[in-house]
Design goal:
With 474 residues, this protein is of the alpha/beta class. The protein has 15 helices and 21 strands. 32% of the residues lie in helices and 19% in strands. The chain has a seven-stranded mixed beta sheet, sandwiched between helices. The longest helix has 19 residues. It binds uridine 5'-triphosphate (UTP).
Length: 474
């Protein structure tokens, strides 16, 4: 134990050393166990570079627009899209794809007490985000007659609630060995001014999830990369919990990824305007990267091409295909994703053990981002999708990217698909659908499937759920 206290002092963590030294018995053992698990050398480096050094991250390199497979416009484009779809479908039929849901976030902006996946987003049924993603997984399994193992990344903060919910919902009817939650890693929050590691209780560190970039290391740590290999998986398809419109294991993306020989691929949509707070896929010093909106200077965010379009238009919707061999290489030692700093309000205890509830941001959290693997890939593919078809995230309690905007977009997509299938959709004078409609992914994953399966003579006379007879719980 004196060793541990000395190691803390050696790494500039005097206050935590004193706090540990001042504890006794089980409380001391609990805090010691948490401190043992820290990489103090790494934290010292991060404090030096990202906290005491003024917080500046390395200046971005030379920026250029990304090369993107645009939405198909010409016959040649459509032909390319068909080939991609076929290649993706073949990979799905072979069982070479794993679906990985990132659900370890804290969802602080939404302010929902339970894990975000339990948020009842659906405008008519009130079904949860987890249930929606599960229905998509089930639909893809049925369509391609494949095993599509579904891995869900949780955090220590929401793991238990997530597992309980999955169990309560009977894993949404999916085979239990195909639904696999796993916990991501954590990092301690440090004081914004001093770099001291904070404690949330006298005998507990203030730990938080290490960012969605923790995905690959967590998969490796839990032996899941090996499991994927033994299942014959080649492509890891990642998506975020907060997007109810997301297309899970969309064959076109998988196909573009495979045909392009990519190690990592991304989906983008056109930004609504220069100021939309969305990371863009671009090139940095010639390598593909996502540049966060906060790192894109205004004059670049507003830069236009000769045709008037935004130069940096390609907003990332955080859907990626990652080659399994690339994930193994990234986690095999030697390569590491960089940490970023996030300045947040963190409740903690002071030296006397009293709780401090800060009114202003007081702490730095360290996070890695999954998209930081892009520049490490030899080859990448970036594919454009239509926003209204695939992206409407629930981030904020109200306004843009909120439950209200997502409910509107879910209903608008359903109305478009119905209209394309020849069903009359009553609309208000502004063109918005009069009644919300939900289409269960197990009925239709796309407009073509809906057109084949829509009940004959369907009349939309009020809020409607179109789905298989019996909806699973959740
Ligand atoms: P966000 O960047 O929106 O973060 O995560 P968040 O923590 O969910 O929400 P705020 O910022 O506190 O409001 C984008 C996606 O990445 C996942 C989230 O669950 C979401 O699907 N994520 C984020 C993780 O899985 N782990 C993390 O450590 C962070």
């Amino acid at each position: 134990m004196p060793d541990l206290v000395r190691r803390l002092r050696d790494h500039g963590q005097e206050r935590l050393a004193d706090a540990l030294d001042g504890l006794e018995g089980p409380a001391r053992a609990r805090l010691a166990a948490q401190v043992q698990a820290l990489d103090l050398g790494q934290i010292q480096g991060l404090v030096r570079d990202l906290v005491l050094g003024g917080g500046g991250e390395a200046a971005p390199g030379e920026l250029g627009p990304a090369e993107v497979v645009r939405l198909p416009r010409t016959d040649a484009d459509r032909d390319r899209e068909r080939r991609a779809r076929e290649a993706g479908e073949e990979a799905l039929r072979e069982g070479a794809v794993a679906a990985v849901l990132l659900a370890g976030g804290q969802g602080t902006r939404l302010g929902f007490a339970a894990p975000k996946g339990m948020f009842p987003f659906a405008p008519v049924s009130g079904r949860t985000l987890f249930a929606q993603h599960a229905a998509s997984v089930e639909a893809v399994r049925a369509r391609y007659g494949c095993d599509l193992p579904w891995y869900l990344m949780t955090s220590p903060q929401n793991d238990e609630d997530t597992r309980e919910f999955l169990a309560d919902c009977g894993s949404f009817g999916l085979p239990p060995d195909s639904v696999q939650p796993f916990v991501q890693g954590t990092m301690p929050a440090v004081d914004l001014r001093t770099g001291d590691i904070l404690r949330e209780a006298p005998d507990r560190l203030a730990l938080s999830p290490d960012g969605h970039g923790g995905l690959l290391a967590a998969l490796r740590r839990h032996g899941l990369l090996d499991e994927m290999r033994s299942r014959g998986i080649r492509v890891i398809y990642t998506f975020q919990v907060d997007n109810p419109l997301v297309r899970v294991a969309r064959p076109e993306l998988i196909g573009h990824h495979l045909l392009g020989g990519a190690q990592m691929s991304s989906v983008v949509v056109a930004k609504t305007g220069p100021s939309e707070r969305m990371g863009v896929v671009a090139t940095v010093d010639g390598r593909t990267a996502v540049v966060e909106y906060s790192d894109l200077p205004d004059e670049l965010a507003e830069a236009r091409e000769p045709d008037g379009g935004l130069r940096y238009w390609a907003g990332s919707i955080a859907v990626h295909c990652i080659d399994l061999a690339f994930a193994e290489r990234l986690t095999g030692g030697g390569l590491a994703l960089p940490f970023h700093r996030a300045v947040k309000k963190v409740r903690h205890v002071d030296d006397s053990g009293s709780v401090v509830d800060p009114a202003e941001p007081n702490a730095v959290k360290f996070e890695t981002f999954i998209f930081d693997a892009l520049p490490l890939a030899e080859r990448t593919v970036t594919v454009e999708a239509e926003r209204g078809e695939e992206f409407s995230p629930i981030k904020n309690a109200e306004g843009a990217d909120s439950p209200a905007s997502a409910a509107r977009d879910v209903a608008a997509r359903a109305a478009r698909w119905l209209a394309a299938a020849g069903v009359a959709v009553p609309r208000d004078p502004d063109g918005a659908p009069l009644h919300p409609v939900e289409i269960d992914p197990r009925l239709a994953l796309d407009p073509g499937e809906l057109a084949e399966r829509v009940p004959p003579g369907l009349v939309i006379g009020g809020p409607t759920i179109l789905g298989p007879e019996r909806l699973p719980r959740g």
